[in-house]
Amino acid sequence: MDIPNQRSSHAVPTPRGGGIAIVVSWSLALGVLWWLGVVGDDLAGAGLAALGVAAIGLWDDYRSLSARIRLIVHFICAAVVVWLLPLNITPLAVNTAVSVLLVVALVWLLNLYNFMDGIDGLAGGQALSVALGFALLAALVGFNELMWLALILAMAAGGFLCWNWPSAKIFMGDVGSGYLGILFGVLLLLAWQHSAMLAAAGVILMGAFVVDATWTLITRMLTGQRFMAPHRTHVYQKLSDRWRSHTRVSVALLVVNTCWLLPLAYTVAFSYLQPLFGLLIAYAPFCALAIGLRAGVPPKEAVTC
């Protein structure tokens, strides 16, 4: 049960751990696809590694664990995923360096998803819209393996969203947020094996969460705050306080993902824009919003919705 506190954006005790539904449904679907020969052993193994993240998240939901233990498990699971889905870059030294960076990036991705799961409908809506974007782009380039995995993830997220849309009847919890984060990392690695352009398009699709979480963390570190401590200084939290609505923020995210990030991701995936240029264009408004709302800077007072 999630009990409201000073950091919370809700005022009513709400059950958490609902993300287990996403974990079970996607894992079962992956098993079926593996049995049918649609996906290989490497991807099935990566799915098992992702279950490690879900397991430690479920444990933390019901019996709080130290950040150190969680991070150790996260790094182990991320390393297994990168090992199973290699990019095979030459020379070997470059491949090793890139692999290490990818492990760190995966750990950050699954943790930032956890940080961004703070208001009703936000994390589920992000998962639904980004996964659908992945599925659409994969279908257009003829990458059926990625298309099916992303589509199944979208359906799992959509089913959960029915229970998490404002006012939420259940919360995702660490079991779901961390799992979604590493799954999107798996999809990105899979996309990169097809083409760097498709992977860059995937990074664009996740822009709202990446910028908000990263900008906020860096700001808190640079200003000498206890950056590991709970807080309410993300862009989405400040918007929900300002608008006094979870629904408006979650709907706004869906609109931005669909009308801004998806078209830009398409132009990069099909080489109409260079990846770096596309990323800069896509991320610029989110950076401007973070500056305008002073993301990472504590508000004068907290407001619950």
Automatic annotation (TrEMBL):
<feature type="transmembrane region" description="Helical">
    <location>
        <begin position="170"/>
        <end position="192"/>
    </location>
</feature>
<dbReference type="GO" id="GO:0046872">
    <property type="term" value="F:metal ion binding"/>
</dbReference>
<feature type="transmembrane region" description="Helical">
    <location>
        <begin position="198"/>
        <end position="218"/>
    </location>
</feature>
<feature type="binding site">
    <location>
        <position position="174"/>
    </location>
    <ligand>
        <name>Mg(2+)</name>
    </ligand>
</feature>
<keyword id="KW-0472">Membrane</keyword>
<protein>
    <submittedName>
        <fullName>Glycosyltransferase family 4 protein</fullName>
    </submittedName>
</protein>
<feature type="transmembrane region" description="Helical">
    <location>
        <begin position="276"/>
        <end position="297"/>
    </location>
</feature>
<dbReference type="Pfam" id="PF00953">
    <property type="entry name" value="Glycos_transf_4"/>
</dbReference>
<dbReference type="GO" id="GO:0044038">
    <property type="term" value="P:cell wall macromolecule biosynthetic process"/>
</dbReference>
<keyword id="KW-0479">Metal-binding</keyword>
<keyword id="KW-1003">Cell membrane</keyword>
<feature type="transmembrane region" description="Helical">
    <location>
        <begin position="20"/>
        <end position="37"/>
    </location>
</feature>
<feature type="binding site">
    <location>
        <position position="114"/>
    </location>
    <ligand>
        <name>Mg(2+)</name>
    </ligand>
</feature>
<keyword id="KW-0808">Transferase</keyword>
<keyword id="KW-0812">Transmembrane</keyword>
<dbReference type="GO" id="GO:0016780">
    <property type="term" value="F:phosphotransferase activity, for other substituted phosphate groups"/>
</dbReference>
<feature type="transmembrane region" description="Helical">
    <location>
        <begin position="249"/>
        <end position="270"/>
    </location>
</feature>
<dbReference type="InterPro" id="IPR000715">
    <property type="entry name" value="Glycosyl_transferase_4"/>
</dbReference>
<feature type="transmembrane region" description="Helical">
    <location>
        <begin position="69"/>
        <end position="86"/>
    </location>
</feature>
<feature type="transmembrane region" description="Helical">
    <location>
        <begin position="146"/>
        <end position="163"/>
    </location>
</feature>
<keyword id="KW-1133">Transmembrane helix</keyword>
<dbReference type="GO" id="GO:0005886">
    <property type="term" value="C:plasma membrane"/>
</dbReference>
<dbReference type="GO" id="GO:0009103">
    <property type="term" value="P:lipopolysaccharide biosynthetic process"/>
</dbReference>
<keyword id="KW-0460">Magnesium</keyword>
<feature type="transmembrane region" description="Helical">
    <location>
        <begin position="43"/>
        <end position="62"/>
    </location>
</feature>
<feature type="transmembrane region" description="Helical">
    <location>
        <begin position="122"/>
        <end position="140"/>
    </location>
</feature>
<dbReference type="GO" id="GO:0071555">
    <property type="term" value="P:cell wall organization"/>
</dbReference>
<feature type="transmembrane region" description="Helical">
    <location>
        <begin position="92"/>
        <end position="110"/>
    </location>
</feature>
